[in-house]
Amino acid sequence: MNQxxxxxxxxxxxxxxxxxxxxxxxxxxxxTHFLSLGRGTANQRIMxxxxxxxxxxxxFLTVVTGRKWLEVKRAMSVRLRIEAPGVGxxxxxxxxxxxxxxxxxFLTEGQGFEKGAEGTLKGTEQELLVVIxxxxxxxxxxxxxxxxxxxxxTVIHARGTGQEKAERFLGISLASEKDVILIVTPIEKKxxxxxxxxxxxxxxxxxxxIVFALPVTDTAGMTLRPQSEELExxxxxxxxxxxxxxxxxxxx
Length: 252
Fold this sequence. Notes:
Blueprint: E1 6-14, H1 18-27, E2 34-38, H2 44-49, E3 57-65, H3 66-79, E4 89-94, E5 97-99, H4 101-108, E6 126-134, H5 138-147, E7 154-160, H6 163-170, E8 177-186, H7 187-201, E9 210-216, H8 227-233, H9 246-251
Antiparallel strand pairs: 1-3, 1-4, 2-3, 2-7, 5-9, 6-8, 6-9, 7-8
């Protein structure tokens, strides 16, 4: 792990422990998070083994440097005993790009981060754009993304924190409800898509969106080329032969 690089830190904990995590992060200089409600999916046996309950969970999204992650990780171990069953989990995912210098400064204030060259992890062909905007403006955001070639996205409801810092840097409030839009895109479309989102739906617009990118190492169930291009440049999918007996079709 490179201590000078940026990462998306994801934290999952129960509602009752949420104030403890928020206080720790604030003490460590991390005041801006995006919170969403979640629920665990483990079966009853696994839940009992891990001493977990079935209460609703809180999911935190926070941008950190590698150095800040190591600092926070140590604090979670000492102060929160995060290794103990039922406390929560936290992990990091590398960021490959960020849309807008002001937005980057806003989310990394106090972490000593200096923006360098953007890049992607070796071997990746797609990236995940994470767009955070004001609730109710996901269509404005998606219209901007579609103009740059996006085929669709997924919307998650969240709430922002760090209102005073957001107003100082961006002139927007993060205390309001937020939509988090997830868009997977080929690498060659990433830069233009981020630019269009910031231009058409970024700070200064009603959507007030910020956007960053995460590397995607592999995908399943996604067609990355237009269908017409696939039919022209590759073999058409093999047609399934029609069943000889109507009964065969009913049970196939």
